[in-house]
Automatic annotation (TrEMBL), chains A, B:
It holds the Pfam family FAD-oxidase_C. This is FAD-binding oxidoreductase. Its cofactor is FAD. PANTHER family: D-2-HYDROXYGLUTARATE DEHYDROGENASE, MITOCHONDRIAL. Belongs to the FAD-binding oxidoreductase/transferase type 4 family. It comes from Stutzerimonas tarimensis.
């Protein structure tokens, strides 16, 4: 913990009342959605301007005080947890959309703009901000950039990275960099903007971002398909992608669906029971597109890949079909799940998933595995539910073993130990399963370039 | 120049006959399409494997021999010119497409794969490689990645960056890095792949790249529109983008069209003469899309933005309309043009262009300015034709003055001094107009991380 002299210095850098030290604030702002690490920050500071952020970082750099950036704190890797007496820099008072340009289709955002706020803003302008995920109502743009947030529309729109036109960052020495200046084409050396995206605040803090917006989608339409076996999912994806630009291609298993059905508040997609389900979405902008989708569906049934299916005919039906997928995470949270967010290339999903299934079944036959995820991107969310009668500590102890097996399989498939949740502290010790020693050494050397005294979110990604 | 002992060492690293020292080879492989710098390499080496590339780089690192990577040598910034006794590493014998995955829609390319070869390969697979530009028949994928090549389809498909799923690079110490392993989602620390894209070979050499392919476009259709004034181009772009996903939005002035018309081998788009023209392209995948385009055209005429227009009704007409734009560069090359490749945000194009026009007209009223470019991306190609009676040296002397004025205006508009041609040696001294001192210092520090002895394409981007 830092001493009262340092606290007084910190207070002098911001407006009165913008440094909080009470236990509730320290607890609330010191953690994200992960629970493994107890929050223990020294103070929470709320800058209101870029100049104040620079002053805080310059001070921290001089005093060797560790800083942790804090956005919506919805992260799942403990990248925004302050467990070691750090000062948390929270962007709650930098939450405005500062400018909009209809010809460039850009919105200039302060880091504390909530994702849903930008989505709503875009809608009001007749446009669309396409990065979307379960925590969009709380997560902030600065955090989205720090983790290169993905979500449910990546197959069409890509990650957050694709939507960052320009970035203002404050590096570990307090320097302000204005990166790329919102240009579409700019071939003037290394694109430093890309380094800060996904860096989890370890190279510097995002203090402003110009985000691109897109044309609003027309008549979004969803299909839920029931597949006879996992291997059928790939040719189904291929058949649809050959004819239609999909906006989503999600996946869930019968066990995931059963849990959502048990809630009693979502209608079943159709009567047949199938082991695997795909939810796909597209713009039915014309009748011809909708017909192409139906023809492709029929083709998939003829081939024996698909057993049953349904297509939304209204906005309400679209939303109901999405609930089948979106409610899974919340529904299974009551079963104390072990969760893992992993990816492989799309074509490798079936053998990869089966290998993990078989391994867990062999060693822990009483474990229930619930799979769901963004299969169109190769991103799977693995969830193992705690058997009701098993002690929580025993369960997570066994899951730690599973974790290692899973990462060994991930490494063998050239996959990623963190598809979209980042590394933070929860996956720091496993980074070597996805990145080589040489890569990690280069990453550390790059950190030293931008943060020579190691004050920017230290201990995240790597030690 | 390096001595014969070093040459013998170099020869021992590759197959017999794969080091060339004759004057013709040195001259041919020592330069790109720029002419300002006389080629003067010490030798040309042709590796056939990644291992040979590593051996060459390790040797060069130990012996402090500068290396220049060589692809199709179609660059326009002298990034692939060896003017100081360097060893040129040419990838002509690493030109195979090694693998294809239909579900992932990826092709694994050696660096010497020609852009058009990949385009053709994709077409044979029923897919599409969307990065396209005038030199696609000669340029190589390694060079495309080194310069983050753009071209005529960026408005829809983005730059080369968007299509690189995975990258194998050899750094300045000879280390092989396998970056991102072709994953769509991978949140495991800094995305080093992004650093190497657009780095012009100064951080390492691309030795393999997995490129993404896309669905083949359906019924590409072009419109050429004549506009009454420059300011009308922006609302026209906006009107079309609000309703249709454009695959291109190009621009040229009446002077550019006149030069192409004078060739006599391309039909005029329509009879009316207009000061500015836009060529837009889209997938007329259904009749409804084509109708939406026609309705938007009519709206633009009603608003007084557009004076005349034509829409292609066949593949032949599509190609004829594209010739109006594509032939410009070659046609004006006979007028000894001063050329510049610059960009601003899309909305800033009209005032930016007018300001440069006015400045040149004021100081050099006898200069003919020919504008064309990818206006949908804010990327303009400025061309000034040498007055027939003016001495070439005098002309380029005056253009050096123009250059400085142009870059000052670029800087004032927060634009880029190189939209898509890179920095190389031709724009090295002007980098400060687009990047801050702090950014340049960070870039140099990053280079030192990956290339501690400064052997990888030294003197390019910065000294």
């Amino acid at each position: 913990m830092i001493d009262s002299v340092l606290i007084d210095e910190l207070k002098s850098l911001v407006e009165p009342g913008k440094v909080l030290l009470d236990a509730d604030s320290l607890n609330a702002y010191g953690k994200d959605w992960t629970k493994q690490f107890a929050p223990a920050p020294s103070a929470i500071v709320f800058p209101k301007t870029i100049g104040e952020v620079q002053a805080i970082v310059r001070w921290a750099n001089e005093r060797r005080v560790a800083l942790v950036p804090s956005g919506g704190r919805t992260g799942l890797s403990a990248a925004a947890v302050a467990a070691n007496g750090e000062v948390v820099v929270a962007f709650d008072y930098m939450s405005q959309i500062l400018a909009f340009n209809e010809f460039d289709r850009t919105a200039v955002c302060q880091p504390g703009v909530v994702t849903a706020q930008l989505q709503q803003f875009a809608e009001e302008k007749g446009l669309y901000y396409p990065v979307d995920f379960a925590s969009a109502g709380s997560s902030q743009i600065g955090g989205n950039i720090g983790t290169n947030a993905g979500g449910i529309k990546v197959i069409r729109y890509g990650m957050t990275r694709n939507w960052v036109a320009g970035l203002k960052v404050v590096t570990g020495t307090g320097e302000l960099l204005e990166l790329n200046k919102d240009l579409i084409k700019n071939a003037t050396g290394y694109d430093l903007r890309q380094l800060f995206i996904g860096a989890e605040g370890t190279l510097g803090f995002v203090v402003e971002a110009t985000m691109r917006l897109d044309r609003a989608p027309q008549n979004l339409t969803a299909m839920v398909l029931g597949a006879a076996e996992l291997d059928a999912i790939m040719p189904v994806l291929h058949a649809f992608q050959s004819r239609i630009d999909l906006t989503a291609f999600e996946f869930f298993s019968d066990k995931a669906l059963a849990k959502v059905m048990a809630r009693g508040d979502v209608p079943a997609p159709f009567e047949s029971e199938c082991p695997y389900y795909a939810l796909l979405e597209f713009e039915a902008s014309t009748e011809e597109v909708a017909n192409a989708a139906l023809e492709t569906f029929e083709h998939c049934v003829e081939q024996g890949w698909v057993l049953d299916g349904v297509m939304s005919q209204s906005e309400q039906q679209l939303q109901n079909l999405w609930k089948l997928r979106e409610y899974i995470s919340e529904t299974i949270s009551h079963f104390t799940p072990y969760k893992n967010d992993i990816s492989v290339t799309v074509s490798q999903v079936p053998p990869f998933l089966k290998e993990i299934d078989a391994l867990v079944a062999e060693h822990y036959p009483d474990f229930e595995i619930v799979w769901f995820g963004h299969i169109g991107d190769g991103n799977l969310h693995l969830n193992i539910l705690k058997p009701a009668e098993m002690d929580t500590a025993e369960f997570f102890g066994k899951c730690a073993t599973v974790n290692k097996w899973v990462f060994e399989i991930v490494a063998r498939y050239n996959g990623s130990i963190s598809a979209e949740h980042g590394v933070g502290m929860t996956k720091r010790d496993y980074l070597g399963y996805s990145r080589s020693d040489a890569e990690i050494a280069y990453m550390k050397a790059i950190k030293a370039v931008f943060d020579p005294n190691g004050i920017m979110n230290p201990g995240k990604i790597f030690v």
